[in-house]
């Protein structure tokens, strides 16, 4: 198995998940899905926010750029996008997911606090990572 392809597809799934998988669903629905599902029909507004922040015209353009090994930062810089908006959007959506997990009791307050403290740094590192 080609590790570059695995990493690219994994990054692509993370990036596209902000456009409509489990982020906007209740924690029970998220827990019931054993794997991330690719969806373009739900949470279209979130997907558009990501594409807008990256200044991308379509999912296909984003997919191709990620497949070519570019980071989200590279994509934003090349297209005149706003990388701070990408980071803010991803942190906000991950925070919502953590909030839902805490509310449902699937994580403890200590786990919530620790994970939330790491969000900004993890998202920033992820956004800057390319797979050349």
Strand runs, count = 0
Quickly give the structural class. Answer: mainly alpha
**Most strands sheet:** none
What is the distance, rounded to the nearest whole angstrom, between the alpha carbons of the first and last residues? Answer: 16 Å
What is the overall silhouette? Answer: elongated
Number of helices: 7
The figure for the number of domains is 1
Helix percent reads 55-70%
Radius of gyration over all CA atoms, rounded: 15 Å
Percent in strands: under 5%
Return residue spans where pLDDT drops below 50 for at least 5 consecutive residues: 17-44
H-E order: HHHHHHH
Commentary on this structure:
The protein is mainly α. It has one domain (3-128). Helix content is 69%, strand content 0%. The protein contains seven helices and no strands. The longest helix has 22 residues, at 83-104.
Write the layout of secondary structure elements.
Elements: H1 3-17, H2 27-32, H3 44-54, H4 59-67, H5 72-79, H6 83-104, H7 109-128
Helix pairs in contact: 1-4, 3-6, 6-7
Précis, in short:
By secondary structure, this protein is mainly α. It is built from 7 helices and no strands.
Key words describing this protein structure:
mainly alpha
